[in-house]
Specification:
476 residues; six-stranded mixed sheet; binds succinic acid; seven-stranded mixed sheet; 39% helix; 22 strands; alpha/beta
């Protein structure tokens, strides 16, 4: 592996903090020190914002076809250097290498998709009420856009924000998560190699609260896209008021996975394994609650336990590993706390009870049954390899249980009857519903939630709209 980039990208230059301060980045699997990234001060964040402002006119007026070519090149470079990039993701994030390779390809897809959308930002001509008037609608970039990205998909979440912003003609500043900045800085190198002009993309690392509030307070930054907790999302909504900033928020989830009595149970369990244990359960769309018709609950549980037992927990660099470590000790403590409360509340541990006393970040996969809506484990996003099972009798009861949460990101539904599944899916209060499918993330699909899971959409043709504003011309 080449020497990893560990400086910030500001105005096309790789910069250390003026003070020389740094933040260590460590491997969650081994505790090994990987690199130190700059802890920049507020003046350097403001410099990044100004450089995005300076770069904006040339980038937004560059022909869309040329913007598209640069985006396409970034995607191609990601694919060409997929092994190096995947290894970096696993080193700093912990997920199994084959998942990291999947994340690189998912990221490259966003650059390809938005390179194709960049050239299709069509306006409208609307018939007016008078013969001598014309009404034209233009779509223009919103301006300087910023992103605050999470550690669970260190490159994919950045890619889907950056690619949409650049395609729309916006310039961009991103703050990657402090746990996983190295993949983002790697992407910054590819942006430069692809010929992106200085200042169009800026990457800043340092104190999260200072950088976040500086971005939010800046009148130059017209839009912020955030993926992370509902708690931080609410803070950003409050902070956006002073500058009336546009937000896209992809926040927490509490995904139900409904198994009807007519479901193909083998297929359901196949989907359950992917939908629950991907990234050690640390995705916003991971299944949080299995809701299974009582007539098939025992069979489903037995099949799920058998498949779960075969999963291998270990270092993501080991090719046998199917579940890597949790990101840090705080994440482990939160999962252990939720498990202990489930145990105290009377849930039944079918597999992995020893996780209640875990002291390592390598949590064994857990399956719990007899879960009830009154329990903490029902209400909170677990963010760990823990499958919880509750039962229902009727479709109406399944819908009510599935909707019994403040969140509305993703839901899953398994049934042998498409018309029954569609009728239920229409009643599920979620932004995304997988029917007989848990692999729902795709560059061409609109990713996002409702209720306290946020607003706005990423990916698809809708994703670019979040970086565009309408201007209407009335021509007499
Ligand atoms: C997330 O966890 O927020 C993203 C998951 C995905 O894009 O598949």
């Amino acid at each position: 592996m080449k020497k990893m980039q560990s400086l910030c990208l500001i105005n096309g230059e790789w910069r250390a903090a003026r003070s020389g301060s740094t933040i260590p980045v460590t491997n969650p699997a081994t505790g090994e020190h990987l690199a130190d990234v700059p802890q920049i001060d507020q003046e350097q964040v403001l410099e990044a914002i100004r450089s995005a402002e300076t770069a904006l006119p040339a980038w937004q007026h560059r022909p869309a076809r040329e913007r598209a070519q640069v985006l396409r090149r970034i995607g191609d470079l990601l694919q060409e250097r997929q092994d190096e990039c995947a290894q970096l993701i696993t080193l700093e994030q912990g997920k199994p290498l084959r998942e990291s390779l999947g994340e690189v390809s998912y990221s490259a897809n966003y650059f390809q998709w938005f390179s194709e959308e960049a050239v299709r930002i069509y306006g409208e001509i609307i018939p007016s009420d008078s013969a001598n008037k014309r009404i034209f609608v233009l779509k223009q970039p919103i301006g300087v856009a910023a992103a605050i990205t999470p550690w669970n998909f260190p490159i994919a979440m950045l890619a889907r924000k950056m690619a949409a912003a650049l395609a729309a003609g916006c310039t961009f500043i991103a703050k990657p998560a402090p746990e996983t900045p190295l993949s983002a800085l790697f992407l910054g190198e590819l942006c430069q190699e692809a010929g992106l002009p200085a200042g169009v993309v800026n990457l800043v690392t340092g104190d999260a609260a200072m950088i976040g509030s500086t971005l939010m307070a800046s009148p130059i930054v017209k839009k912020v896209s955030f993926t992370g907790s509902t708690e931080v999302g609410k803070l950003l909504i409050r902070q956006s008021a002073d500058t009336v900033k546009k937000l896209t928020l992809e926040l927490g989830g509490n995904a139900p996975f409904v198994v009807l009595d007519d479901a193909d149970l083998e297929k359901a369990v196949e989907g359950a394994i992917y939908g629950k244990y991907r990234n050690a359960g640390q995705t916003c769309i991971c299944v949080n609650r299995f809701l299974v018709h009582e007539s098939v609950a025992q069979t489903f549980t037995d099949l799920l336990v058998a498949r779960t037992r075969a999963l291998v927990v270990g270092n993501g660099l080991d090719e046998k590993t199917s579940i890597g470590p949790l990101i840090n000790d705080a994440a482990r403590d939160k999962v252990v706390g939720i498990l202990q409360s489930a145990s105290n509340d009377g849930a039944t541990f079918v597999l992995g009870q020893e996780a209640c006393a875990a002291t390592s970040r390598f949590i064994p996969p857990v399956v719990i049954s007899q879960v009830k809506p009154s329990m903490r484990i029902w209400k909170e996003e677990i963010f760990g390899p823990v499958a919880t099972i509750a039962t229902f009798r009727t479709d109406a009861e399944a819908i009510a249980l599935a909707n019994d949460t403040q969140y509305g990101l993703a839901a899953y539904l398994y049934s042998g009857s498409l018309s029954r599944a569609l009728a239920i899916a229409e009643r599920l209060e979620y932004g995304m519903v997988g029917i007989n499918d848990t692999a729902i993330s795709a560059a061409q699909a609109p990713f996002g939630g409702i209720k306290q899971s946020g607003f706005g959409r990423e990916g698809s043709a809708h994703g670019i709209e979040d970086y565009l504003v309408l201007k209407y011309l009335s021509v007499a």
